[in-house]
Structures are given as structure tokens and as C-alpha cells.
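Researcher: I'd like a candidate sequence for this fold, 100 residues long. If you have to choose between options at a position, lean toward the conservative one.
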């Protein structure tokens, strides 16, 4: 099984300061607040979730320019927070600021 693709829009709840890995790669941690209406079993339902995430390299540098409250569309993949955790986080591989 190879499919692991995520696309979410939402508001950046928090953005931590840009930092660097020991190898010198830019790394940025953030939290995304998502709200939408989805159809399930023919019924509309309100969906709300908050998800942690990380971005690396050029995506991290671009996201570091954004502010909390900014609407964004992120795409990437899910992985565990760390090897001992079962908590999932979004690894953003693309980010697009949404103008409101």
C-alpha cells in the first residue's frame, strides 16, 4: 500500500519559529484548524478538527512568512509524531496562502 495523500484547507492556529535540523534543513512546526461541511451517507455534517504538522525545506521557509489566522491550503502526507507515538501529524509538502 502506497497511498498517503492529504489536502486540507484551514486556518493556521499557531506557527512556531523557523528552526534548522542538524543537517541545516529548515523545519517549521504548526497547527492547522479545519472547518467544513462534508457529505456522509447522504447527509451533510459539520467537520472540525485541529491537526499538528511540520514543513521542511522551501515549504518551511515559505510558511514562516505566514501569520497565525492566515487561511491556507496544505497538501502532504500523514505520519506518526515520532517513532514512539500513535498521534498523527501532517507533513506539508506544498502550501498555498488563500486570500480572503
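Model: Candidate sequence:
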Amino acid at each position: 500500500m502506497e497511498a498517503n495523500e492529504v489536502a486540507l484547507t484551514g486556518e493556521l492556529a499557531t506557527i512556531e519559529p523557523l528552526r534548522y535540523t542538524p543537517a541545516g534543513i529548515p523545519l517549521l512546526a504548526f497547527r492547522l484548524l479545519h472547518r467544513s461541511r462534508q457529505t456522509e451517507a447522504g447527509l451533510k455534517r459539520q467537520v472540525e478538527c485541529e491537526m499538528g504538522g511540520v514543513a521542511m525545506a522551501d515549504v518551511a521557509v515559505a510558511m514562516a512568512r505566514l501569520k497565525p489566522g492566515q487561511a491556507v491550503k496544505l497538501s502532504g502526507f500523514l505520519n506518526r509524531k515520532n517513532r514512539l507515538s500513535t498521534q498523527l501529524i501532517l507533513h506539508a509538502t506544498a502550501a498555498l496562502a488563500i486570500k480572503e
